[in-house]
Amino acid sequence: MAIFKADKLDVIFSISQPPVLGGLLGVLGKILRKSKFIYNIQDFNPEQIEAVNYSKNKFVINLMRRVDNFSCNKADKVVVVGRDIKETVVKRNKTFYIKKCEVINNWINEKEMYPLPKDSVLAKSFIEKNGLGDKFIIMYSGNIGLYYDLENIIKIVPYFHRYPEICFVFVGEGAKKKEVVEWCNRNNVTNVKFIPYQPKEEIIYSLNAADVYIVTNVKGIKGVSVPSKIYGVMAVGKSILGILEKRSEARNLIEDSNCGICVESGDYEEIKNKIEYLYNIFI
Is the pLDDT of residue 165 over 90? Predict the structure, then answer.
């Protein structure tokens, strides 16, 4: 490991990946190298595991929480990516010194990700290559996984068959993609496209092809994780439909910057209403 090979270390910076072990490795480095330790929490575990019922083994979950609390206490500074995550740190650990925790949002390189007209050559190329024509594109891009509730959100899509101009576009892969695709096939959902992950250098063109962009988290993720896709979407200037819990960091960012509208996670009727509203104000 680099922390044992370097000649002199003033500060060790460790992130919360792999879960729990990332922090513990930072503590180990601090002790052995007699340096300062900054612990950067990107996703909070075991809270993230609990939010989606990934494990119900209370012994393992409680052990993980105790170990991660130990890492937070031993750190000289804890950096979190959301105000809601800071609340979780303090709530979880009653002995924690609150001034030791700082909120620093993640970010995007605005020289690599920026607004382009939807009819620009490369954005238009993405649209034409994927058979999207003149569609009003509602896009989700990223991990189609456990933490985004897409397997339930997809069930509102057939309602929009009455709007032939609308197409829902899901760009990415993940643990829930097969389930979502199979549901669409069984129910003859035709106003949806599934597109593989795009090369990093081409993400700017796929994001700029959208009219409305969905940023979502499953209920229970507030204070645990912040969907990093929001930074790229904000950088390209897209209107956002945030399907997010109140006072979650991503929702705060959308509302503070007035770059979209939000609805509570799990409120599928209101999600449908908000999509209809956005379509009607843009056409």
Answer: yes
Architecture label for domain 121-282: 3-Layer(aba) Sandwich (3.40)
Residue 243: how many other CB atoms lie within 10 Å: 28
CB 166 within 8 A of CB 139: no
pTM, to two decimals: 0.92
Q: 265 Cβ partners below 8 Å, 6+ apart? A: 149, 216, 217, 218, 219, 221, 243, 244, 245
- Cα–chain-centroid distance for residue 37? 26
Residue 194 bridge partners (DSSP): 170
Query: DSSP for 167-230?
Result: EEEEE---TTHHHHHHHHHHTT--SEEEEPPPPGGGHHHHHHT-SEEEEE--TT-TTTB--THH
Domain positions in the chain: 2-103, 121-282
Task: Tell which CATH architecture fits domain 2-103.
Answer: 3-Layer(aba) Sandwich (3.40)
pLDDT in tens, 48-58: 888 878 778 89
